[in-house]
């Protein structure tokens, strides 16, 4: 009896051992072939904006974080990222998923991941980008340098500048010199006006060559927007207003309510029919690809 | 009498051993849950120091700190609830219901409002602030529930606690509205019980509180037994009622507030854990106190594991999972006590 039991146990142990051995050899071959195939770097991007800078260069990261509110990739690039692994939201990234990807390099946004650099460095070589320093052009160029695609980056920027000149001409034809504008965003709870900082400031007041409405430049330059009350809308005295309404129903209702008010109806831009509804994405995606898509959209608006 | 006590001892010993075993299984299950699949065998190998880079990083850097925090917080909340139920002589007492969590939240909001950089090392001070907030609420509750002739009135303790809790929640809400969006979203997720501590530093911030206060409470088991019989009997048994009550209340505040600081405002564990423990091994504190901590551990670790695995990719805070299970139980208890 005892003997049989010992034989049985040793049989099981043997099975386990052989199973382990097989497992090991399997994983080895798997990683081996992977390395042979991958000439492009396997990039894990911990910023939705850096992801879209990469896409602008025609590089698809193997993994990327998702938008915090959307809980998904940004809608305008979702199609291009269908083979990309979702790494959670940037404030609470899925570290295990990153580790599992075995990226060859990790791109970080200093604002969100600056404190955890050592954690990422343990997984793979890491590059940190400060998105508040310089414009997306600088970020694109430095990425271009890292992936040996400086020419493509320069070309992308040149194309963008060319398009921006075209749209500026269109705008001048439409508005003349009077083109003081403001951009607002309607959320379920509040009304925000964008300042000169990213994401809206640079594209509106530099790339599109529009002038900021009264008081826009007084908004804290370190903040992307300021919350205002409806009553002060007329004080900006804008010739045109760009409006972003959040995707949820509550925000849409809030905008409908706003449109009914006497204050809104009395605005110069509203009277002259110069209110432009623009989608939150790509306009709020401050990246090479996002701004390029927003520029395309602006061209469409002002060609009419 | 002696025979009965021995029988109880034996029963408590067996039940506690069984629950230690269950805890180990739950913890292993939790260690095994995550995006990256690691076989249980590999987990054991890794613990024996033979794991590869990948599994050891996942286990020691990502999963272990979080699970340890959940374990410690579960123990803290379970024991704190047991103390409070004894002191208030009311089986519906719980650090959340008594308003200690609201006070802790108040402390945290003060902390993030004035020192709002969430720098890693600062995590060590968070328990101090939540303890401060919790102690302030406890003090207010004791002052308001104190009767000059009859001492601390257990029933009033709970009612005053509920009122104070509402008041502190209002102040906390007021402060949190002034926070910037990022800190606000942290604070609001914290309030519903999101295990946010993910690093070893967070474990270190919580460990000493539990390591000191939990054994201290256990040593005081006999006092707790006496106190839960009523003040007159307790003083008749030679317990200095007021001094011990304050001391034990402070221990309960410390345990719950430190736990809550790292694990978020998790309610109901302090209510449910002592209840189940009492049912299993009887009402003697030396028997059910350790068990209460163990049950707290099991509930919280399980809830956190469920919250972060089933609803992927959007993890649900453990506090919500606990509340989903705890609320019906609480209502059941309410209906039954009547």
From TrEMBL, chain A:
Membrane topology: Lipid-anchor
Gene Ontology BP annotations: iron coordination entity transport
Name this polypeptide is given: Iron-hydroxamate ABC transporter substrate-binding protein
Taxonomic superkingdom: Bacteria
Location of the Fe/B12 periplasmic-binding domain: 42-304
Signal sequence annotation: 1-21
Localisation per UniProt entry: Cell membrane
Database matches in CDD domains: FeuA (cd01138)
Recorded GO CC terms: outer membrane-bounded periplasmic space; plasma membrane
Automatic annotation (TrEMBL), chain B:
Gene Ontology biological-process annotations: siderophore-iron import into cell
Keywords in alphabetical order: Cell membrane, Membrane, Transmembrane, Transmembrane helix, Transport
Topology in membrane: Multi-pass membrane protein
InterPro entries, per database record: ABC_BtuC-like, ABC_transptr_permease_BtuC
Record keyword Cell membrane present: yes
GO cellular component: a single term: plasma membrane
Pfam families linked to this entry: FecCD (PF01032)
KW Cell membrane (keyword) present: yes
Subcellular localization: Cell membrane
GO molecular function: transmembrane transporter activity
Transmembrane segment boundaries: 12-31, 67-84, 96-116, 122-145, 157-180, 200-219, 246-272, 284-303, 315-335
Family: Belongs to the binding-protein-dependent transport system permease family. FecCD subfamily.
Protein name according to UniProt: Iron ABC transporter permease
